[in-house]
Amino acid sequence: MGFSSHDDWINKVTSGNLFRQDWNKQTTAVGAYTAGRWYDMSQTLGYPIQNIWGELVKYGDFYGSATGWTLGAGWAYGTNNVTHTAGGGATAISQTIPIVNGRTYRTVFTSSGLAGAGNFRLKLGGTAGTDRNTASTFTESIVAGASGLIEIDSDDGRTVTIDDVSVIEPLAFTPYNDSSIGAMYHGGNVTPLTKHLQNAGIVSATATAVPGVWVLVDILGCYPRIDMNSAVAQTLNNGLTLPRYADGKGVRAFLTATTALGAVAHNISISYTNTIPTAGRTMPVVVAGTSSATAGQIDHSGVGANNYGPFLPLAAGDQGIVSVESFTNSLATGAGNLAALVLCKDLAYIPVTTASVLTERDFLNQLGSLPRVYDGAYLSWLFFAGAALAASSNIYGYIDFSWG
Amino acid sequence: MNVYPGSILTSSKLWYKSAGSIWHGPNVSPDTKHLLTTGIGSATSTVVPGTGILCDYLLFYPLVDMDSTDLQEFDNPISLPRYADGAGVKAMLVTTSDIGATPSILNISYTNQAGVSGRTLSVPVYLCSNATGSQIAHSGTTDKNFGPFLPLADGDYGIRSVQSLQLSDATGGGWAALVLVFPLATLQINNNACFSEKCFVRDSPSLPQITDEAFLNYIFFTGAAMASGAIIVGYHEFVWG
């Protein structure tokens, strides 16, 4: 489909086939960005909300409300948490999440404010985890059942406050779509029509926000909780596959730190399947990560020797990635250091040159390309810092989408 | 001119005949009207650089007490006059007088575009201390300022109505209005005394639709310390068919 002519475009757009999305992001408060590095802006606050790679639970922190959760009798929202009050019944809070029957997930939740007697437990897909009756943070691997629910249920006699609920499948490809956490709504599905980027604009008042380059990507999925404190090859699970660009053409990978990394120089390597598909492909060069990379930084980007960014270089002749089978870090960077390996398709590049001056792109007349936005696309930004972008910097932008 | 007079915390409609709307012609239905070209300029040097966002202002909740931590509950006798399902509708808290110096965090409870109530903002949103009148109170350059629109909950892409607002701290004074708008077009002003112009067929092809009875006006992002009394002039061309 698309547009057969300028007149056809006018006809479609004036018939309502246009959606404008306004977004805003704020960089981390932890510290300034470093010039020459690429950053994964999905991990920043704003709208769309912050993404935690691989997280399947929405509003596990109950910020502001119990939005997204169904509260059984006896449960009530508190202040950024929920509480079961003894005598309210043996009931649960629940949420439908995209878990798969038979797969193993890392679950976490925190309990506090205990009173009364009895147990509480996390259930995943109907499979109960360990009974608990103390105030603590509990981490447990659970094989999901078939219900598609995460639940925390409590015995009738127990008063308990619950917070910080998380479900992630470590090292397993977790597909992303426009209903995933932190997705940017872009107009909904339009098939059999095709949707395209029409215009985009970005502005920031922060002097150090410029110069820079913003790259709009369609995030296809990630391998979460890569252990950066391990120098052993980590096998990645590919039970789930690319949700879009299934042949892998144009699909690239980047490694984003999800925690700060230790002050350890390290190299990274992957073994992947290309678009043929041929497995066992490796990068053609040594790729260095960044010592002391900050959370949100694309680890292998920067101005140091063997830094490449934003994407990992592919083997000669390869056109993209279908899946990644393993990841290896040359040196452990520190306890608790984690990263996510993300697969994406780049859609558009927008350089920003001047503070407080809106940079705009017209993808029809100016840079005629009308990049396609597939149904279900999870749109996010990568940012190349041309300067030491200050902490807590605000960026505003808009995107127009059209379809025909 | 105070464009936000009304009953306290009660939804009040804005339309093309409300004071303050940029006139765009009469209703054209069953045709559709679209923004064709726009130009903006100012002789005041501190107006630039700046970014204007043309919005259809839909309704507002006036007399939000910026010196109260009470849950301020809104009354909704008037629903969205346009974009009735709320898809694409954004919210902003606009000061109608100077507010106090005490930092405060804002949250709202709203109904989203799917009609689901009880939705809240996704992050702590900090207000600007000492925000002056007509400022979008949560926009700025400090930590947890977000602007121009409030960041919605995950999965939400519009607001159908707002049920309540609450501040974490009393700012020390002042009033505001929570305003629901539908953003239409964006225009950058780079040079004073020189019009910035845009054609919405050739420059930023989008031909934004101007719904019958739309209340049009701008929100403005100041890239410099815009002087008081600055005059901004502009023009629009609308086309329908």
State the secondary-structure class of chain A. Answer: mainly beta
Shape of chain B: globular
The level of helicity of chain A is under 10%
Characterize the largest beta sheet of chain A: strand count, sense, and whether it forms a barrel.
6 strands, antiparallel
Q: Rg of chain B from C-alpha positions?
A: 18 Å
- What Rg of chain A do the Cα atoms give? 22 Å
Rounded to the nearest angstrom, the distance between the terminal CA atoms of chain A is: 6 Å
- Give the assembly state of these chains: heterodimer
If interface size is counted as residues with C-beta under 8 Å from the partner's C-beta, which chains form the largest one?
A-B, 56 and 52 residues
**What's the helix-strand series of chain A?**
HEEEEEEEEEEEEEEEEEEEEEEEEEEE
User: Helix/strand/pairing class of chain B, anyone?
Assistant: mainly beta
Following the backbone from N to C, one meets helices and strands of chain B in this order, namely EEEEEEEEEEEEEE
Give the overall shape of chain A.
globular
Largest sheet of chain B: 5 strands, antiparallel
Can you give a write-up of this model?
The complex is a heterodimer of chains A (404) and B (241). With 404 residues, chain A is mainly beta. Helices cover 2% and strands 41% of the residues of chain A. In chain A, the strands form five sheets. In chain A, strands 1, 3, 15, 24, 25 and 27 form a six-stranded antiparallel beta sheet that branches. In chain A, strands 2, 14, 16, 18, 23 and 26 form a six-stranded antiparallel beta sheet that branches. In chain A, strands 4-7-12-9-10 form a five-stranded antiparallel beta sheet, with no helix packed on it. In chain A, a hairpin with a 2-residue loop joins strand 9 and strand 10 (127-128). The N and C termini of chain A lie close together (6 Å). Chain B has strands at residues 12-13, 33-42, 50-65, 72-73, 90-95, 105-112, 119-120, 125-126, 159-167, 175-189, 196-199, 209-210, 216-222, 232-240. Chain B is built from no helices and 14 strands. Chain B is an all-beta fold and 241 residues long. The model of chain B has no long low-confidence stretch (mean pLDDT 94). In chain B, a hairpin with a 6-residue loop joins strand 6 and strand 7. In chain B, strands 1, 3, 5, 10 and 13 form a five-stranded antiparallel beta sheet that branches. In chain B, strands 4, 6, 7, 8 and 9 form a five-stranded antiparallel beta sheet that branches. At the A-B interface, helix 1, strand 1, strand 3, strand 15 and strand 27 of A face strand 7 and strand 10 of B.
